[in-house]
Design goal:
Blueprint: E1 6-12, E2 15-20, E3 23-28, E4 48-52, E5 74-77, E6 89-93, E7 96-100, H1 115-132, E8 139-143, H2 149-156, E9 160-164, H3 168-180, E10 186-189, H4 193-203, E11 209-212, E12 217-219, E13 225-227, H5 228-241
Parallel strand pairs: 3-4, 8-9, 8-11, 9-10
Antiparallel strand pairs: 1-2, 2-3, 4-5, 6-7, 12-13
Helix pairs in contact: 1-2, 4-5
Length: 247
């Protein structure tokens, strides 16, 4: 297998230092709060650092709790203090490629910690297709599918995938990732997950597997409110009903 273009270089003090292809980026990571960085000198090599707009934007500034927030609006700052906003670039997580860009919320369009899950998805699909012996397509429904890492891993392994996300701009991003990865035969749908699953049940559709990685809170295309604690049990129940008996 080819080597990934991603590398976790260090973490600590609620931040992480990562290499995404040609760029080394320093950004918030609340899970790293209890730890101290092990390679302090390496952080000086960062191409850019993400900081909240309300905080001191000087590279290497103090890591306050507010500055470690994730999902809040901020800016990417180069070592010279200038804003860092490169053109979108792509990185490989073989056998797939993903387009990345520095968003104002500290995200890049990929959660690299999901890479082991993508490999496991591919392994399970390969095993399942071998058992089916080509009798019929192996169908997967990917809900809250974001920029498509799981979708592309499944498609590369030979599955037919229905990719669903409520955000049209994110869906378009996933389509570009499929093009970068040389993958097609994916059905792209911009829709609320709960609404779509119920509709699939009424249509009598069935799947061999359902993947879902829902947020704690969100909105559907028509303003539907999603709350994990309230809505997940019902969605899981309906998703299980979509499964083929042998799934």
């Amino acid at each position: 297998m080819q080597q990934s273009d991603y590398e976790l270089l260090d973490f600590g003090d609620a931040r992480r230092l990562e290499r995404f292809g040609p760029y080394i980026l320093d950004r918030a990571c609340p899970a790293a709060q209890p730890f101290r960085s092990q390679r302090p000198a390496l952080w000086k090599q960062a191409t850019a650092r993400f900081v909240l707009e309300s905080q001191d934007a000087e590279p290497g500034g103090a890591n306050t709790n507010a500055n470690n927030a994730v999902g809040e609006r901020g800016i990417w700052i180069a070592p010279n203090g200038e804003p860092f906003q490169p053109e979108p670039w792509s990185v490989g997580f073989p056998p797939i490629r993903l387009e990345l860009k520095c968003t104002p919320f500290g995200h890049l369009g990929v959660f690299p910690e999901q890479a082991p899950n993508w490999r496991r998805i591919a392994e399970l699909i390969g095993e399942s297709i071998a058992k089916k012996k080509g009798a019929e397509p192996f169908r997967i429904l990917n809900l809250f599918a974001y920029t498509g890492g799981s979708t592309l891993a499944a498609a590369a392994a030979g599955a037919e995938v229905v990719h669903l996300d409520a955000a049209k701009n994110v869906l378009a991003w996933a389509v570009r990732n499929a093009e970068l990865s040389g993958l097609s035969k994916i059905r792209w749908i911009a829709e609320d997950a709960v609404r779509f699953v119920r509709r699939e049940l009424k249509r009598g559709e069935r799947y061999d597997a359902v993947i879902l990685d829902p947020p704690s809170y969100g909105h559907g295309r028509r303003g539907e409110v999603w709350r994990l604690s309230k809505d997940l049990p019902g969605l899981l129940r309906d998703a299980l009903a979509l499964m083929r008996p042998e799934a």
